[in-house]
Amino acid sequence: MKDLSIRDVRESITIMRTEKIIVACDFDGVLHSFISGWTNPRDIPDLPTEGAIEWLKHILAMGHLYQVVIFGARVYHWGGKKAMKKWLLKHGLTKEELSKIRFVYQKPGCRFLLDDRVICFRGTFPSDIEILNFRPWHGKDIW
Ligand SMILES: [Mg+2]
Description:
Layout: H1 6-17, E1 21-26, H2 52-61, E2 66-71, H3 80-90, H4 95-99, E3 102-104, E4 112-114, H5 128-133
Bound molecules: magnesium ion.
């Protein structure tokens, strides 16, 4: 695992200090439809998941209430964050909208999390069967 840089730590502290509701959203498999699966950190081959850009624009337009944080493994790799930004612009976000988003490597502390690889914990732990049978909606496994 990568050591956190000063910049990473600053970014996390800045996010935690906001009084807005932090809406954390995974990139691959949520915004990016991930139909092709993982290729490399700078290659984002697929279209947005249906409704993703519209939803993101809606949440960003409510910037007085929400702070959008997009997280994903790509942020950890050289050029990955830049590729994510370029992809979001290509698919309809404006530069102004993009400037409101924070990009982080790992899930931040947040009120709300949107991810393709989780089960919402409601006090009951998953069984082995549930773990083994779990598949994200797009059916692509990384490992
Ligand atoms: Mg994902």
